Amino acid sequence: MAFQMKDRRHTDPPLAADCCPGALARVSCRSCALNTLCLPARLSPQEARIFDGVVERGRQLASGGSLIRAGTRMDALYVVRSGSAKRYSVSLNGTERVHGFVLPGETAGLEGFACDRYACEVAALEPTSYCRIPLTRLEPLLDHLPGLRREMLRLLGEALDESLRLRAELGMCDARGRVARFLADLSRRLELRGLSPTQFRLSMSRGDIARHLGLTLETVSRALGTFKRSGWLEVRARYITLLRPEALASMGGYAA
Amino acid sequence: MAFQMKDRRHTDPPLAADCCPGALARVSCRSCALNTLCLPARLSPQEARIFDGVVERGRQLASGGSLIRAGTRMDALYVVRSGSAKRYSVSLNGTERVHGFVLPGETAGLEGFACDRYACEVAALEPTSYCRIPLTRLEPLLDHLPGLRREMLRLLGEALDESLRLRAELGMCDARGRVARFLADLSRRLELRGLSPTQFRLSMSRGDIARHLGLTLETVSRALGTFKRSGWLEVRARYITLLRPEALASMGGYAA
DNA sequence: ATCTGCACTTGACACGGATCAAAGATCATG
DNA sequence: CATGATCTTTGATCCGTGTCAAGTGCAGAT
Question: pLDDT tens-digit profile of B177-202?
Answer without folding.
Answer: 999 999 999 999 999 999 999 999 99
